[in-house]
Amino acid sequence: GSIISPSSVNGVVGLRPTYGRVSRHGAMALSNTMDKAGPMCRHVEDCVLVLNAIYGPDKHDGTVADAAFKWNPDLPLAGIRIAYARAGFDPAAAGRAGGGGAPGGGGAGRGAGRGGLTPEQQAAQAEERRKMYQDVLDTYRKLGAKLEAIDLPDLPLANQIGFILEVESAASFDELTRSGDVDLLRTGPSASTWPNTFKTARFVPAVEYLRAQRGRTILMRQMAEFMSKFDVLLSA
Predict the structure, then answer these.
(1) pLDDT (tens digit per residue) in 201-220
(2) How are strands ordered across the β-sheet holding 82-85?
């Protein structure tokens, strides 16, 4: 989430390129099979300018593909197959509350649900999200897009191989871990949990790591088949 997450919470445009699109030379490595470098800009057009300047081989990162970058801002949306994840934009899903606290009045915080919000506040927040998501879809339709609501495929395997990133990050920072300097990350008011991650991931057997990579290949093929029906997938 080093591009998409901060872009989302700061209201800017984040472009997370395809793996092998932009050289990672000079950047701090984390996961050698997942790391991607991309811009965060104010507008889409700004991301276009930056990507045009940074994409392609540089004789330093062997994973970068020599593929052309073509930008056509006048391409009509009506000719693009656009789907949106039903669960993310569905009012019921967006408005589902996660409270579960026992009813009753009394002291401070009583009757509050997730995040300390009252049921009324949760309902208002859900309605605000519902309207925001609906405005997004309406904007696409006004621009000529033909949207299709879809359900994302059920891929339980995806939840079982997340440790690939942890193992690869442990390899990237192994020297720091072995020297003990990794414990310096524990200091300060916002102590990092990476030291423990780096240390524990060293005990993952190579066999399990390779099996997870095989499972990852299966997931890639399943998602490629799913996305073959669409050009763009909107999620919330």
Answers:
(1) 999 999 999 999 999 999 99
(2) 147-150, 82-85, 232-234
> What Cα–Cα distance (Å) separates residue 100 from each residue in 62, 88, 129, 169?
51, 22, 21, 37
Helices (H) and strands (E) in the chain, counts: 9, 5
Burial class (CB in 10 A: 0-12, 13-18, 19+), 7: buried
pLDDT greater than 50 at residue 100 = no
Which pLDDT value is given to residue 161?
A: 94
* Residue pair 165/30 in contact by the 8 Å Cβ criterion: yes
What percentage of the chain reaches a pLDDT higher than 70?
Answer: 88
Candidates 94, 85, 81; CA nearest to 131 is 94
Question: By the 8 A CB rule, do 87 and 151 touch?
Answer: yes
**Alpha carbons 110 and 52: distance in angstroms, whole number:** 54
Q: CA 159, CA 115: separation in Å to the nearest integer?
A: 26
In sequence order, the β-bridge partners of residue 55 are: 22
Q: Which of 68, 85, 65, 69 is nearest to 20 (CA)?
A: 65
